[in-house]
Amino acid sequence: MTDIVKRNARAILLDGDELVLIKRTKPDREPYWVSVGGGVEEEDATIEAALHREVFEELGGKLERAELVHLITDGLEGGVGVQHIFAARLESMDLAARTGTEFDKPERGGYEVVRVPFTAQAVRELNLMPPELAEFIATNTDAITSVLDTPIREA
What we know:
By secondary structure, this protein is of the alpha+beta class. The chain has one domain: Nucleoside Triphosphate Pyrophosphohydrolase, CATH 3.90.79. Strands 1, 2, 3, 4, 5, 6, 7 and 8 form an 8-stranded mixed sheet that branches. It is globular, with a radius of gyration of 15 Å. The protein starts with a strand and ends in a 6-residue tail after the last helix.
């Protein structure tokens, strides 16, 4: 069995019919886009709790709903990294409330919150990282929307 040495929680974050992403700009590199999210920390009770924390840190945001829809595995030194990909709906956002430490480090580059239409074509036109996530989103836009729009039924 391979050890998991790193976990991330990321959101395919929808606000209405738009996908909310972060456009990263760094010196000497073409701009690229990433989904909202980040590393799971020791104090996070669950992976979903980490997602909620990251959405607040990066957007001053709250989620209406989050559903685990995909995993991406990366080979890392000493084991694997697992990115837990959630489909989520944004309930609210206040960029003035962002608390992420990365925003205080200009040397890390820019973090611009952007919205793009939630269509396969729009996603494919971006340099969305990692490429596996871009392909998953572009291939599954209808399914992702359906997951978030279908009421949860109690057993």
